[in-house]
Design brief:
The protein is of the alpha+beta class and 122 residues long. The protein is 37% helix and 16% strand. The chain is built from two helices and four strands, in the order αββββα. The chain has a four-stranded antiparallel β-sheet.
Length: 122
């Protein structure tokens, strides 16, 4: 399988199941700061306030994922794309189920509008 191979129905089912099991959305990117977790870039169920809150000024239960925790170095990607990764993860929460539904809708549309085998198209 390569990145360009069409998704199978089984793969679509798996994506749908993964999305359904994940924390409900929407998700947001939050920039937080903390004496114990400096420069925290997180994906959260709560929108960013722009205040860079320090714990306990934010509820840790709102955090779904972190893409940067610099000090100590818990999460700090070598390519320094922590903001981009956080935005991708947050967008994927709502977009993946929509993409799965769109693929299924388009496949259904193709099935109902495609000529049957053996017939020529003009």
């Amino acid at each position: 399988m390569t990145a360009l191979d069409p998704l199978t129905d089984g793969e679509l089912d798996e994506l749908e199941e993964l999305a359904g099991a994940a924390t409900p959305g929407p998700w947001f990117v939050r920039s937080l700061d903390d004496a114990d977790a400096m420069s925290l870039v997180a994906v959260s169920t709560v929108p960013d306030t722009g205040l860079g809150e320090r714990w306990p000024g934010f509820d840790h239960r709102d955090i779904v994922a972190a893409t940067l925790i610099q000090q100590p170095r818990y999460v700090d990607t070598a390519d320094e794309r922590w903001d981009e990764n956080a935005h991708f993860i947050a967008a994927a929460r709502d977009t993946v189920p929509r993409l799965v539904a769109e693929i299924r809708r388009l496949r259904q549309q193709l099935e109902t509008t495609s000529p049957t085998d053996g017939q020529e198209t003009t």
